[in-house]
């Protein structure tokens, strides 16, 4: 869905996002947005890290993995990589 809104740029370059947009995108005061300039078009993107973190956590839960499982797997991968690349274990 595409919706267009008119916003005013203040003296210091600030704009106010319409309340409906803030609610739909879960943007709160103090959030950092990404501003992308494509020629003469400006795009504002909401923060992606919380969404990615939630998706990653959900995938871990679905797979029955814990943080400890991931850390142990990382240690094993380091040993394998070290052996392959340097001929010795880390």
What tags apply to this protein structure?
90 residues, mainly alpha, Pemi-like Protein 1, Chain: D, 2 domains, two-stranded antiparallel sheet, 3 helices, 2 strands, 47% helix, 11% strand, elongated
- CATH second-level architecture of the largest domain: Ribbon
List the total number of helices.
3
- Going by helix content, strand content and strand pairing, the class is mainly alpha
What is the string of SSEs from the N terminus onward? HEEHH
Question: What would you note in describing this structure?
Answer:
The protein is 47% helix and 11% strand. Strand 1 and strand 2 form a beta hairpin. The protein is mostly helical and 90 residues long. It folds into two domains: 1-46, Ribbon (Pemi-like Protein 1, Chain: D), CATH 2.10.260; 49-86, no CATH class.
Short description, anyone?
This protein has helices spanning 19-25, 49-63, 67-86, and strands spanning 34-38, 41-45. With 90 residues, it is mainly α.
């Amino acid at each position: 869905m595409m919706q267009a809104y008119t916003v005013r740029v203040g003296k210091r370059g600030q704009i106010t996002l319409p309340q409906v947009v803030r609610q739909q995108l879960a943007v709160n005061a103090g959030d950092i947005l990404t501003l992308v300039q494509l020629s003469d078009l400006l795009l504002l993107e909401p923060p992606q890290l919380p969404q990615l973190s939630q998706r990653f956590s959900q995938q871990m839960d679905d797979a029955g993995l814990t943080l400890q499982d991931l850390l142990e797997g990382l240690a094993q991968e380091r040993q394998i990589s070290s052996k392959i690349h340097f001929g010795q274990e880390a």
